[in-house]
């Protein structure tokens, strides 16, 4: 495909309205819609004291709409977190300001590498390359010199948490522009809402002037990827990052732009389109997420479901309610409720549930069947029987008719905690299992992308004898340091920052000495990966984001969600004997939080 058909020059109008307010916020009810709240700038000295009965405002400046403020429940947070609250530190006696924490050698090196990885377009920063030594491995350039949406997320968070917001805004707007590009593979065009996996800044001749050149963006929607797989998770990560940007900067004008609202709707319409599937989970092919090679995750992989749930909650918060979006918002709420129930009920495994599966009857033809997916007890792998601890559990990797993938996938479990896709007890159980199985899942380098590895005939059949995904390497049981920031996020949300600090301490010195590899091999992560790029940007950024989140744990809420009883009403109905009855939020609270663990 010619470059001219897939790229366009930069547009200066993208960079208007980049002034970020520097003051705290109060909120007022919008006159346009009773369910929407708008930001109203007001100096802190003149801000009226909040009335908890009429306008419940928390000490951080966040607002809980009265229709969801329930007695005895933690209010939901919809608002920016400026100004950043300072942690208690020694105070400079001259300047009367907190003394900044001294950065470690690894942190200073990481910031240097991250800044060097920044990619500029038309004089503006728009992202970071995947790896600094992109062509150092056997002269193979591949696509490590491109800006990947999923890879840029930890970089974006590191910049946001440091107060550098321009690069994130530019990235969000330019990738949104790429969403509408023509994308064709073998005469077939995928849905309009598809976001690119990556893009590269190139120079191209200006039309009509062979002597002049301009910078252009060249996106890859999967038509150049190994296996030609569309990146399902790109659009989900984009929505999650958009919400985080708004909450940390207070720049909600970006959310309200017509092109941004349209972009959100296109992504969701693609995800929520009708099909033949009977389940609320998103059906995808192998290789459509971080695990982008054949690894037997086709169907309904947990990683996609966790990101899908989080993106739906983000979109529900950001979409402007009007006549054009009303049906979509209702569809989002309905899907969230069904997806929450489905994952909590059918993906969760602990010792009790495993014993229940072991005693399953098969070939049940009934609407009241216990073994709804006709799972044969012989599918329980031998390693799991002795591995699963007495305390704790996890969400398995995949559930579909006559198939359960019992492998532990870190990203899906950690993001399920962050987004409250799990119940609170399930979230505690996942962290308990990680703590109990620390040597297996963390080892000498956090964090296993999946556990255990596929070996022997299982590896040959499942991966097609993939030479990169050999046992305990790459996606097949490899250790990925970039997962540190998601582990830290989950630990902070559950009040266990000690676990995150323990993992970061394990990784810090080795990452610096080993030149920030992409991944590690062997069951305990002792070797740098055999095909691992060095100076991998999301390894660097994941480490920095973990450090910043531990330093300011209150900022973790830009990415997390608390339990929403409005969504659980439908879920409680599904647990009742008569799923057609209408449930109250009190029933949702007592039944879901009490019984779905």
Describe the structure.
Keywords: Carbohydrate metabolism, Glycosidase, Hydrolase. One of its GO terms (molecular function) is endo-alpha-N-acetylgalactosaminidase activity. The chain has helices at residues 105-116, 149-162, 166-179, 232-249, 253-256, 258-271, 302-318, 326-346, 351-358, 382-387, 410-418, 424-436, 438-441, 456-463, 484-493, 497-513, 537-551, 565-575, 585-595; strands at 25-29, 37-41, 118-121, 124-128, 147-148, 198-206, 209-220, 348-350, 393-400, 403-409, 450-451, 520-521, 527-528. It has a four-stranded antiparallel sheet with strand order 8-9-10-11. Helix 2 packs parallel to helix 4, helix 2 (149-162) runs parallel beside helix 17 and helix 6 (258-271) packs antiparallel against helix 7. The protein is α+β, with helices and mostly antiparallel strands. The longest helix is centred in the middle third of the chain and has 21 residues, at 326-346. Mean pLDDT is 82; it is low at 1-9, 11-87 and 577-584. Strand 9 (393-400) and strand 10 form a beta hairpin. It is built from 19 helices and 13 strands.
What's the arrangement of strands in the largest beta sheet? 8-9-10-11
What does the radius of gyration come to? 24 Å
Distance between the termini: 52 Å
Q: How many helices in DSSP terms?
A: 19
- Strand percentage lies at 5-15%
Strand tally: 13
| Estimated helix fraction | 25-40%
Label the overall shape: globular
Helix-strand category? alpha+beta
Average pLDDT works out at 82
Largest sheet: 4 strands, antiparallel
